[in-house]
Amino acid sequence: MPRLVVADGAVRARVLDALPPSAREGLSAAAFATFEQAVQKTTWARAHRQRIALMDGDVVLATAVRGQLEARLDDRPVRIRAIGSLWADPARAAESPAAALVAALVDAGRDDGADLALVLAPSDGAWPAAEGFEPVPTTEVEVRVIESTRHGAPMTLVRGGEDRDLAAIVAMGDARARLSRFHLVRDADFVKFALTRRRLLAGLAPAGQRALRFLIAEEGITAAAYVVLTETAGVWTIEECGDRDVAGARVGALLQATVAREPVETRPTIRGWLPPAFAPPQLALARSPASPPLLFARSLSAGLPPLDLTADQILYWRNDLF
Predict the structure, then answer these.
(1) Is there a single domain that holds both residue 65 and residue 156?
(2) Do residues 252 and 219 touch, judged by C-beta distance below 8 A?
(3) Does one domain contain both 150 and 281?
(4) pLDDT at residue 169 is higher than 80
């Protein structure tokens, strides 16, 4: 009889050995094992993140990472059971182990008092959205940086981000979140977890495959704007960003300064999810072609109103996809 277990110790080693390259974030088996061990040591992960496996004896049928998140919907608190990094053995597809694992985690989340289940669909499509789940709309944009005719960087002080910037980042996020119907509640521990996760993925990847930039624009000694970029195969992805200015002018300046440092003959493709009303004057935004939904939600509480959300009512960063 399949059973649900926490993937610790020898079980975790067996689970990680079962994962194919497509489920290891582009890392080798050894590097991914290091990544899992290191990310789980962060303060937020120790309290809120676990890798779970559906096992049949010693055979791994499916695995996922479950997390406990807090959000607000129409200014009311919402407890979330989040499920990500979902993988199922394709040889057991007829038994639907991915669906069984999600159903078990959803039931456990309801028993723990969660109001909402949030599932990140696997890239291989191993888990079709089950009954009761609705897609969470997201709008990806392609960003073109409007460069100065003088071909130079703007007069913006840019430096690398540090732990001392976390409080300012949280404050920027809180101010932006007030404009959205639905958003995660992100504290300093969660922001640090998200940044640590990206740093590990970049640092453990094969040389030259992935890079991370965590950039700050400051006023005085305080962060006034920031952007987190990952670089893969000539594509820059905005994982998250923030600005004291509602329109995001300092984020635009950060991207202008970063692009100005690149060789003039190579201009990266820049993509990301950007929040509503975020329109830095230095950026031209074009909506990317529609892609299959990544996130699916299901209410677990009778008191939770229907989500009925549109993309411009949601604040959710790629960095939140753990």
Answers:
(1) no
(2) no
(3) yes
(4) yes
